[in-house]
Amino acid sequence: MHLVPAERADRRAIDGHRVCDAVAAIGEPDHVRAWAERFSLLSDPGRLALLVALRQTGPLAVSDLAIATGMNGPAVSQALRLLRAAGVVAGEKDGRVVRYRIIDPITADLLRHCVCGSG
Predict the structure, then answer these.
(1) 44-112: which CATH topology?
(2) Predicted structure pTM score
């Protein structure tokens, strides 16, 4: 089956079957965009450190995350705001303390492959 979009069908392919396989692998532009946004969240060292810490330990408060990552409290709060808005983390209130945890299973699975602390 020919999967090359009509607007690109006039171009001469060297390995046409591989081009079709590549088009199928890339899939829908919205799906690619969603993955790019997910990787963008992980591309910031501070956010990545927060997520690695949360994946390893489970729920942590902002102050504890600041200690663990070496970030200041406002920077941790700002990063968590972005991660929360993206649906990656959620906070659970326990009295006056809010503990954050990862709720996005795809991000958690990606982090499983992150070996930031080992060398």
Answers:
(1) Arc Repressor Mutant, subunit A (1.10.10)
(2) 0.79
